[in-house]
Amino acid sequence: MIDCTVVGGGPAGLNATLVLGRARRNVVLVDSDEARNKITDASHGFITRDGVKPAEFRAIAHQEFSQYPTIQTLKDKVVEITKEKNGFLVKTEMKKQWATRKVILATGVKEKFPNIPNLRDFYGTSIFNCPYCDGWEVRDQPLALFGIIDYTLHTAKILRNWSQNLVIFTNGEELTKSQAKEIQKNELRVETSPIRLLIGKEGKLQKIELENGNIIERVGGFVTPELVQASELGTRLGIKLNDTGGHHSDEVGKTKIHGLFVAGEASNVYPAQLIIAAASGAEAAMAVNVELTHEGILGSDK
Ligand SMILES: Cc1cc2nc3c(=O)[nH]c(=O)nc-3n(C[C@H](O)[C@H](O)[C@H](O)COP(=O)(O)OP(=O)(O)OC[C@H]3O[C@@H](n4cnc5c(N)ncnc54)[C@H](O)[C@@H]3O)c2cc1C
């Protein structure tokens, strides 16, 4: 019987695993290595790790695990979690299964992009989704903004501190009266024609070709995709989603199912930041340790 299974090895799952290993808990971290930030060259804003490659961030974490004997890691995908009397039964894609007292779901989110041709060719290299993550890198540059118009307007206002040279592309969507008013008030430039093609080289945006024939030079931009849960494991166990799209839980990630916790973007989709996900993983791990202690379960390396 494993003390805790952590599903997902992004910052939330990694930090949860570290805290549990240091608490002498028998912990298995299962990760399918499909994190959405894999496509970016550098992550920013995590103190002591500013500019780190996502793969390097994970590699450092795994190196740190090696000194804690109760941590096991597995590159695999959890396909089923069944509630049992004293915990859960976990099954993976590679046909492994084990019993576990607690589970932390740290499975993250995935993006649903607006229907813009070849946007993915530039996502993570010159088109980003969070000014706090990549605004500094494109400061004072001519930028494009795409996505759900209300969110884009919000991003545009914040982004002006990084660059004043902004164009909002609605990709054929008409503005509502209030959106048009907001745009006028904030003196923002808008292009409403549908987008024919994004043009650039090796992930670096250069121009945007519109259906009306106009070509607009832009070197990068921001998109506001819809963020949805990457895994259905939580909802299949009966956990409903909250208003942000995360799984319902208390402030430390405890769900209504005894022994099931959520962390990172599986818990709160916003703000989407590595350091916030990592902190939430640490909180969930401490809550797991407290629950195990109250149940009279001692650390497994004793
Ligand atoms: C392009 C881009 C750039 C970004 N840049 C920054 C930045 O500079 N700074 C910053 O702070 N934030 C940045 N972010 C946001 C940051 O990546 C996320 O906020 C953070 O990774 C969320 O952490 P998480 O642990 O909740 O989920 P994730 O990091 O998404 O990790 C979830 C993990 O769970 C695994 N998983 C899912 N389902 C299963 C399953 N069934 N079984 C096993 N494993 C599973 C996935 O493979 C994945 O590895 C960026 C995001 C993107 C998309």
TrEMBL record:
<keyword id="KW-0560">Oxidoreductase</keyword>
<dbReference type="GO" id="GO:0016491">
    <property type="term" value="F:oxidoreductase activity"/>
</dbReference>
<dbReference type="InterPro" id="IPR050097">
    <property type="entry name" value="Ferredoxin-NADP_redctase_2"/>
</dbReference>
<feature type="domain" description="FAD/NAD(P)-binding">
    <location>
        <begin position="3"/>
        <end position="281"/>
    </location>
</feature>
<keyword id="KW-0285">Flavoprotein</keyword>
<dbReference type="Pfam" id="PF07992">
    <property type="entry name" value="Pyr_redox_2"/>
</dbReference>
<comment type="subunit">
    <text>Homodimer.</text>
</comment>
<dbReference type="InterPro" id="IPR036188">
    <property type="entry name" value="FAD/NAD-bd_sf"/>
</dbReference>
<protein>
    <submittedName>
        <fullName>NAD(P)/FAD-dependent oxidoreductase</fullName>
    </submittedName>
</protein>
<dbReference type="InterPro" id="IPR023753">
    <property type="entry name" value="FAD/NAD-binding_dom"/>
</dbReference>
